Structures are given as structure tokens and as C-alpha cells.
């Protein structure tokens, strides 16, 4: 009986200690999500409370205007998803590879001044996004440092923030490939298939470079504990067995840092689909909508066009995209064996 009462007191104390955090999560997370879901299926105009008597449900009309009804709203959504997709496809692999490379470099015991290099590589991640954006505006201006360096090398630099040309279209056009008519007549979300195959624009390239430079340092710190956790005995055994550096990396290091790799890829995927501040500060979705993202489009539609229902619907479409890609990534990177099995693949 006494142990049962002690158990009840422990449970009660646990609930009392966690209740402030639970209340904060409900008030600041669950309630806003529920209200945003209601706004996405209502005709709220942004005036008054979304749950007032004058706000009426409109069903799936806001989602239909974005997904199934041809028009400007659908085309803008298609542009934003296409631009953000190319942003994800370039940023996530490159920032992950660079972060892992930096982590391997600074984890070497033979490297002098490792603390300095860790700080230097991490510094861009803690710098204000406004300051970094201003620096990139200066670097990639028409008369900026990048174009000046290209001019010194005898090459003409592009108009980075005003050129809407897709890189893939530029390459294909340069070798004389013209789009088949079927790719122009048919498409998805208001864009032709040829439009989907445009590739990132010149302006989007600057945002991709900015993202890789500012995030690789953060992910480097996530890789470091995983690298430090690899047993030296395992690596020494692989060397004795005659494994090359590349074989040790592929057969031992990568399998043993898989949890850290999954974390980095997941955080990178979520962060790149939610990109907003760089677009807001540098391009505002221009030129010609080639740097538009769903996060910025939701802000623009809600606060600029006062279409609060469509803005909330875009946010939930973005949420569905992030969940889908995260689940697919989890399936691709799922654990296929233990560390012992990973070591055994050397033989």
C-alpha cells in the first residue's frame, strides 16, 4: 500500500512539474495550429477574431483555388514549389557534404589550432541573417566583387539578382536543344513541364551559395560528436587489414555516423523548405518569380494580398510537403545493420 501511494505521489509530482511546459505547448503551438487550420477553410478577412460569428466556413475552396483551379494562385504555388525544390536539391546535399568534410578536417588530432578552425567555420551560422544578406547583396551586385573578379579573368559576370534564366534552360539552349511541344502543352500546377525543368535561376544560385555558407558550420558541429565516437581500434584494425582511406570512410565512418547523418539531412530538409528570410531580404521572390518559395508566398498572400485563407492553405500544403519528404528520407536512410555488421562489410 505504501509503495502504491509513493507511486501516485511521484506521478502527481511529475505532472505538476511538466504542466507549465504542456500548457505553453498547447497555448503557443497547438492552439495556433488549430486556428490556422480553421482559417484555411474559412473566409476570414484578417479583421477581428478568426472564431468570431461573422467568419464562415468555405470548405476546401482555398485548397481548390491553389491545387485544381487554373489561375494566378495556382501558378504562383507551382512557381514557389519548383523554385524551392531546386533550392532543396542543391543546398541539402552540398551543405551536408561540406559540413562532413569540415568536421573530418577539424576532428584530426594532427591539426593545430582546431578550436580556432571550429570557431571560424561556425561563425557564419551565428551571424545575423540581415548582415549576411547585405554582404551578399554587395558581393553579387552588378558592380560587386564577384563580377569584378570575373571581369579580371576575362569573363562577363551576369546580373545576379535580375536574371530569371534557368541554368538548365541556358545549358540546353547553348547546345541547341529546343523543347518538345509535349513539354510545353502539358504541365502541373499551372507550369508546363518545360517550366519545371528550367533549373534554378541565376538569382536563386546566390541564395543557394548563401545557404550553404551559413549553415555548413552548424551541421559540422553535429557531425563532430559522431566522429569522435568512432573507436580508434576499429579504424586501426581496418588499416591493418589494408583498407584504404576511402574504404574506411565508406565502410566504417559513414555507417557509424548514420544517426548524425539522418539528423543533419532532416534538419537541412526542413530548413530549406522553410526558407524565408533570405528571400524577403534580398529578392522578394523576383526576378519573375524565380526565387519564390512557399513560405514567402504564404506571407505575401496573407499580409500583402489579404487572402488569409489561401495563405494558411499554402502553409499547410508546405507542411504536407515537408512531412512527405522527411518520411521518404527516413525510408531511404533507415538502419540496415548494426555497427558490428558495418565493420564486417570490410571483409
Strand runs, count = 2
The shape is globular
What letter string, H or E per element, gives the SSE order? HHHHHHHHEEHHHHHHHHH
**Helix/sheet category:** mainly alpha
Distinct helical segment count? 17
Portion in strands:
under 5%
**Into which percent range does the helicity of residues fall?**
over 70%
Ends apart, CA distance between termini: 58 Å
Q: Please compute the radius of gyration using only Cα atoms.
A: 25 Å
Give the neighbour order of strands across the main sheet.
1-2
Main sheet summary: 2 strands, antiparallel
Name the average pLDDT: 87
Which stretches of 5+ consecutive residues score pLDDT under 50? Answer: 337-347
Question: Can you tell me about this structure?
Answer:
Helix content is 70%, strand content 1%. It is mainly α. A two-stranded antiparallel ribbon has the order 1-2. α2 crosses α16 (308-332), α3 (72-106) runs antiparallel to α13 (258-273) and α4 packs across α10. The model is unreliable at 337-347 (pLDDT under 50).
